[in-house]
Specification:
The protein has about 230 residues and is an alpha/beta fold. About 55% of the residues lie in helices and about 15% in strands. It catalyses: CMP + ATP = CDP + ADP; dCMP + ATP = dCDP + ADP.
Length: about 230
Amino acid sequence: MQVAIDGPASAGKSTVAKIIAKKLSFLYIDTGAMYRACTVIARNHGLDYGDESGILKAIGQDGIELKSENGEQKVYSAGKDISVEIRTPEISANVSQVSALPKVREKMTTLQRQMAGKTDVIMDGRDIGTTVLPDAEVKIFLVASARSRAERRLLDLKQRGIKSDQTVDQIEKDIAARDYKDSHRKVSPLKKADDAIEVDTTSMTIDQVVDRILSEIKKSKKIEENSTK
């Protein structure tokens, strides 16, 4: 079974996807982390964030690997755990440019589809329901106000031990700018799939969002069971 969760930055996609994957024993794939890893690789190689051929070559050299360790997804590149590094403000500010590169998206999409083809999967990102897994049985599109997402981002940075001098207002401005970039890029823009269920998480707790998505997954399973009888 394939479950696609899309939405803008800090709408809660990764948080709820991890919980649901654990509850259902599904494989969890954080596609945003993969693009962030590409951005870290570009920076580590001293490349311009628009240097598509250079970044592709560097990705080929360093590689990107997702590992599950103690129930947490870890991101490795060049044999190093970069799970914290990919969440730093510098990477957040530049990932939109890297993720908009057509051949980088093509490479990551291929990897994502290969991972999803092996088992039950829950995948989150910005183009999962529209591009990566267009035939997913359940598609969710999470939204939330820019302010609430900025507050979540600041809290997340603190919990991860990442130092940042940014205020909530600055983060809100950055998030709004990223929303625009993600939704206006030429290749696989951030867009709600026609058959996706929109969930506004602004005033919802994590548990409420999880329960809502789980109910949609259970509905889908019942439909599948009935159709095979």
